[in-house]
Design a protein that fits this description.
This protein has 170 residues and is an alpha+beta fold. Helix content is 22%, strand content 38%. An eight-stranded antiparallel β-barrel has the order 1-2-3-4-5-6-7-8. It is globular, with a radius of gyration of 18 Å. The N and C termini lie far apart (41 Å).
Length: 170
């Protein structure tokens, strides 16, 4: 085999090992920061997966103050970012997985929509967070439903027992 084939094989192996070793799951808690957010969610804990180069992915949401959880799936959907206020565009788009409490979350955030997505800004420890809910209506249009504003509360060392008892497909 020539050197370039070996180099490709070595890089592939290194990437696989480093990706698995570097994946870091964190649980960041946030409190509602305005009346609208408080009326819908009060407090949340986000399950965050941080990759090798610091990129983050939200895997799920747990209600910190009551029983409920939802899983998310990263998704690229045309038109979702277009209905978010311009100053908050560019966040990651996640589909709310309809299993478990996901369907109820989607209905609570976007009543009357057929499908709902979340546009999540950069999730960082110690920083406030804004999450936008966007829905897809029967008329085919995507509309901004609500902006949820949170203030950072802290980080759990692991998922607390009261939250880990919630159903999850992970």
């Amino acid at each position: 085999m020539n050197k370039s084939v070996w180099a490709v094989l070595a890089m592939t192996a290194l990437s696989a090992v480093a990706g698995n070793a570097a994946a870091d799951v964190r649980y960041l808690a946030f409190d509602a920061d305005d009346r609208t957010t408080q009326s819908l969610t009060r407090g949340i804990t986000l399950e965050i997966e941080r990759g090798l180069f610091g990129a983050t992915r939200v895997r799920g949401l747990y209600s910190t103050t009551s029983r409920g959880s939802a899983n998310f799936r990263p998704q690229s959907v045309s038109g979702v970012q277009d209905v978010v206020p311009s100053e908050d565009r560019g966040g990651s788009v996640y589909a709310i997985v309809p299993e478990g409490d996901g369907r109820a979350l989607g209905r609570a955030l976007c009543p009357g929509s057929e499908e709902a997505w979340l546009v999540v800004g950069r999730v960082r420890s110690g920083r406030p967070l804004t999450i936008h809910a966007v829905g897809h209506w029967p008329d085919g249009k995507k509309r901004h439903c609500v902006a949820l504003k949170y203030r950072y509360r802290g980080e759990w060392a692991g998922l607390p027992n009261s939250l880990s008892d919630m159903p999850s497909d992970r």
